[in-house]
Amino acid sequence: MRSTRKTRRTFDVTAPAAIKPLGLFEVSELDSPFARNGGMRFGAHQFHEAMTGTLIHAVWFGGGLRIIDVADPAAPREVGFFIPEPAGEHAAPQSNDVMLDERGLIYMAISGSCGMCAGAQRARVAWIILEPRVGPAGRR
At 30, is the secondary structure helix, strand, or coil? Predict the structure, then answer.
């Protein structure tokens, strides 16, 4: 099942009566090793509402976590990503949610996972906790 193209867009909202599109960020299905596996959604899903500086943390269903820098809102660019392995018998990961805490830890929900549950109480969502690493330029 292929989903319709879903993207992240930036807008100039300086004048609410005349909102203008500025930029577009897309993730190609070729950017995920699981996107071509049938039966799973791929497109953009949820983003963390509170920005960290100029960074947006967003998840694509089959494309995992994407960290997007919007310092230039006309040209959003990816500065980091994480694609989890598929859970259980799924053909692709299904990333559903992303949150950050005050320490900068990234929490990512993956649907269809069991995590550390057992028996009839199986959870439908597992959380992955990621700690951002400082790159060669000293930036997270």
Answer: helix
Q: Express each pLDDT in 103-134 by its tens digit.
A: 888 888 877 644 433 333 334 445 666 666 54
Q: Return mean pLDDT, the chain.
A: 75
Give the max Cα distance, the chain.
Answer: 55
Query: Could you tell me which of 28, 33, 53 has the C-alpha nearest to residue 43?
Result: 28
| pTM, 2 dp | 0.73
Q: Which domain holds residue 109?
A: 8-15+25-130
As a whole number of Å, the end-to-end CA separation of the chain is 35
Query: Is the residue at 2 inside a domain?
Result: no
Lookup: tokens for 37: 């596996």
